[in-house]
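Here is a typical protein record:
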Amino acid sequence: MKLRIAWIGRTRSAPIQSLTAEYLKRLSRYAACDAQELMSEAALLKLVEKSASRISPVLVLCDARGRELTSEEIANFLEYHQSHGARELLFAVGPADGWSPTIRSAADNILSFGKITLPHELARVVLLEQLYRGFTILKGHPYHAGH
Protein backbone atom coordinates (compact mmCIF):
# COMPACT_ATOMS: atom_id res chain seq x y z
CA MET A 1 0.00 0.00 0.00
CA LYS A 2 1.22 3.47 -0.85
CA LEU A 3 0.67 6.58 1.22
CA ARG A 4 0.40 9.91 -0.50
CA ILE A 5 0.24 13.08 1.56
CA ALA A 6 -0.95 16.23 -0.18
CA TRP A 7 -1.46 19.70 1.13
CA ILE A 8 -2.67 22.96 -0.26
CA GLY A 9 -0.17 25.80 -0.24
CA ARG A 10 3.56 26.31 -0.27
CA THR A 11 5.60 25.79 2.88
CA ARG A 12 8.25 28.38 3.63
CA SER A 13 8.93 27.40 7.23
CA ALA A 14 12.22 25.51 7.57
CA PRO A 15 11.15 23.73 10.80
CA ILE A 16 7.92 22.47 9.18
CA GLN A 17 9.87 21.30 6.12
CA SER A 18 12.36 19.52 8.38
CA LEU A 19 9.66 17.76 10.43
CA THR A 20 7.79 16.79 7.26
CA ALA A 21 10.95 15.24 5.82
CA GLU A 22 11.74 13.43 9.08
CA TYR A 23 8.31 11.80 9.37
CA LEU A 24 8.22 10.91 5.67
CA LYS A 25 11.58 9.19 6.18
CA ARG A 26 10.25 7.31 9.21
CA LEU A 27 7.06 6.32 7.37
CA SER A 28 9.05 4.97 4.44
CA ARG A 29 10.17 2.09 6.69
CA TYR A 30 6.56 0.87 6.78
CA ALA A 31 5.03 1.91 3.45
CA ALA A 32 5.93 3.57 0.20
CA CYS A 33 5.07 7.22 0.60
CA ASP A 34 5.39 10.57 -1.05
CA ALA A 35 4.26 14.11 -0.44
CA GLN A 36 3.02 16.86 -2.69
CA GLU A 37 2.41 20.56 -2.35
CA LEU A 38 -0.61 21.57 -4.38
CA MET A 39 -1.65 25.08 -5.24
CA SER A 40 -5.41 24.59 -5.01
CA GLU A 41 -8.27 22.28 -4.19
CA ALA A 42 -8.83 21.92 -7.95
CA ALA A 43 -5.30 20.50 -8.22
CA LEU A 44 -6.22 17.88 -5.61
CA LEU A 45 -9.34 16.91 -7.56
CA LYS A 46 -7.22 16.61 -10.71
CA LEU A 47 -4.73 14.40 -8.81
CA VAL A 48 -7.56 12.13 -7.64
CA GLU A 49 -9.02 11.91 -11.16
CA LYS A 50 -5.59 11.16 -12.65
CA SER A 51 -4.97 8.42 -10.07
CA ALA A 52 -8.47 7.02 -10.62
CA SER A 53 -7.59 6.14 -14.21
CA ARG A 54 -5.69 3.21 -12.73
CA ILE A 55 -7.25 2.32 -9.38
CA SER A 56 -8.95 4.99 -7.32
CA PRO A 57 -7.06 6.08 -4.24
CA VAL A 58 -8.86 6.19 -0.92
CA LEU A 59 -9.21 9.95 -0.37
CA VAL A 60 -8.93 10.97 3.28
CA LEU A 61 -9.40 14.65 4.08
CA CYS A 62 -8.19 16.25 7.28
CA ASP A 63 -10.86 18.67 8.42
CA ALA A 64 -12.06 20.04 11.75
CA ARG A 65 -15.56 18.74 10.96
CA GLY A 66 -14.34 15.17 10.44
CA ARG A 67 -14.35 12.10 12.65
CA GLU A 68 -11.94 12.04 15.56
CA LEU A 69 -9.81 8.92 15.95
CA THR A 70 -7.43 7.79 18.66
CA SER A 71 -3.93 6.70 17.67
CA GLU A 72 -5.03 3.08 18.02
CA GLU A 73 -8.02 3.74 15.75
CA ILE A 74 -5.68 5.28 13.16
CA ALA A 75 -3.61 2.08 13.35
CA ASN A 76 -6.79 0.05 12.82
CA PHE A 77 -7.73 2.30 9.88
CA LEU A 78 -4.35 1.64 8.25
CA GLU A 79 -4.58 -2.09 8.93
CA TYR A 80 -8.11 -2.27 7.52
CA HIS A 81 -7.07 -0.65 4.26
CA GLN A 82 -3.93 -2.81 3.99
CA SER A 83 -5.89 -6.01 4.54
CA HIS A 84 -8.64 -4.98 2.11
CA GLY A 85 -6.22 -4.36 -0.74
CA ALA A 86 -6.18 -0.58 -0.92
CA ARG A 87 -3.40 0.36 -3.29
CA GLU A 88 -3.16 3.98 -2.23
CA LEU A 89 -4.31 6.12 0.67
CA LEU A 90 -4.31 9.80 -0.27
CA PHE A 91 -4.37 12.02 2.82
CA ALA A 92 -5.00 15.69 2.16
CA VAL A 93 -4.54 18.66 4.47
CA GLY A 94 -6.61 21.53 3.23
CA PRO A 95 -6.34 25.21 2.78
CA ALA A 96 -6.51 27.51 5.77
CA ASP A 97 -10.21 28.24 5.11
CA GLY A 98 -11.21 24.57 4.92
CA TRP A 99 -12.53 22.26 2.24
CA SER A 100 -15.40 23.05 -0.12
CA PRO A 101 -18.55 20.91 -0.20
CA THR A 102 -17.43 19.56 -3.60
CA ILE A 103 -14.22 17.97 -2.31
CA ARG A 104 -15.88 16.91 0.94
CA SER A 105 -18.44 14.92 -1.07
CA ALA A 106 -15.63 13.29 -3.11
CA ALA A 107 -13.82 12.11 0.04
CA ASP A 108 -13.97 8.52 1.24
CA ASN A 109 -13.17 9.60 4.81
CA ILE A 110 -12.88 12.88 6.69
CA LEU A 111 -10.73 12.88 9.81
CA SER A 112 -10.27 15.50 12.51
CA PHE A 113 -7.50 16.12 15.02
CA GLY A 114 -10.04 17.28 17.56
CA LYS A 115 -11.81 20.46 18.45
CA ILE A 116 -8.67 22.54 18.54
CA THR A 117 -7.69 24.72 15.60
CA LEU A 118 -4.31 23.96 14.06
CA PRO A 119 -2.48 25.91 11.38
CA HIS A 120 -2.64 23.70 8.30
CA GLU A 121 1.17 23.34 8.20
CA LEU A 122 1.18 22.01 11.76
CA ALA A 123 -1.80 19.76 10.96
CA ARG A 124 0.35 18.14 8.27
CA VAL A 125 3.08 17.33 10.78
CA VAL A 126 0.48 15.96 13.23
CA LEU A 127 -0.94 13.78 10.44
CA LEU A 128 2.47 12.41 9.50
CA GLU A 129 3.35 11.72 13.14
CA GLN A 130 0.04 9.92 13.72
CA LEU A 131 0.47 7.80 10.58
CA TYR A 132 3.95 6.86 11.77
CA ARG A 133 2.58 6.12 15.23
CA GLY A 134 -0.16 3.98 13.68
CA PHE A 135 2.37 1.81 11.88
CA THR A 136 4.51 1.47 15.01
CA ILE A 137 1.41 0.32 16.92
CA LEU A 138 0.72 -2.31 14.25
CA LYS A 139 4.33 -3.54 14.32
CA GLY A 140 4.58 -3.59 18.12
CA HIS A 141 7.37 -1.01 18.06
CA PRO A 142 7.96 0.66 21.46
CA TYR A 143 7.52 4.21 20.04
CA HIS A 144 3.84 4.36 21.02
CA ALA A 145 4.29 2.85 24.47
CA GLY A 146 7.07 5.28 25.29
CA HIS A 147 5.04 8.42 24.62
The chain has one domain: 2-139.
